[in-house]
Amino acid sequence: MKKILIVEDEKPLARVMSLKLNSAGYQTSVSFDGESALEILSKESFDLIILDLVMPKKDGYFVFSELKRLNIKIPVIVASNLGQQEDIEKAKQLGAVDYFTKSDITLVEMVNKVKQYLQ
After folding, report:
1. What is the Cα–Cα distance from 63 to 79, expressed in whole angstroms?
2. In angstroms, rounded to a whole number, what is the distance separating the alpha carbons of residues 52 and 31?
3. What pTM was estimated for this model as a whole?
4. What pLDDT, in 10s, does the model give residues 33-57?
5. In which domain, by residue range, is 10 found?
6. Does the pLDDT value for residue 58 go beyond 90?
7. 114 pLDDT band (50/70/90 cuts)?
8. Above 90 in pLDDT, residue 83?
9. What is the signed CA dihedral for 63, 29, 9, 92, rounded to 10 degrees?
10. Share above pLDDT 90 across residues of the chain, in percent, rounded to a whole number
């Protein structure tokens, strides 16, 4: 079973994403900030990360820099409320395989994006 780490500080959204991905056959873990996400990543391996950019403690950009520093090569899909082209380009330069604006995507579309990268 493929494992996904959801890093999202909006707890209701993180839970709904987790439930939807679980029902699609994935195993999920949830972190509500970048600091705890990095702690989880130091102990467990994942097949994919869904990463918010604006979070407490450590933001998504910091998580990207730590993944690179620690040589952790896991595909990252950014899920953010930041929809500006420069935010998208910055995330892709940091290594995001995909990017979606949370307000512009349904949960079904999110699951389909995940399936694309985990087949």
Report:
1. 14
2. 10
3. 0.95
4. 999 999 999 999 999 999 999 998 9
5. 3-118
6. yes
7. very high
8. no
9. 40
10. 92
Phi-psi domain of 25 (left: phi exceeds 0; alpha: psi -120 through 50; beta: other)? left
Looking at the chain, list the stretches that DSSP marks H as alpha helix, in order from N- to C-terminal side. Answer: 11-23, 34-43, 60-69, 85-94, 107-118
Q: Fill in the DSSP letter of residue 11.
A: H
pLDDT at 82 over 90: no
User: How far is 96 from 25, CA to CA, in rounded Å?
Assistant: 23
Exposure string of 4-37, with b = 16+ CB inside 10 Å and e = fewer, is: bbbbbbbeeebeebbebbeebebebebbbbbbeb
For the chain, the domain total comes to 1
Rg (CA), the chain: 13
CATH code for position 86: 3.40.50.2300
Q: How many C-beta atoms lie closer than 10 Å to residue 93's C-beta?
A: 9
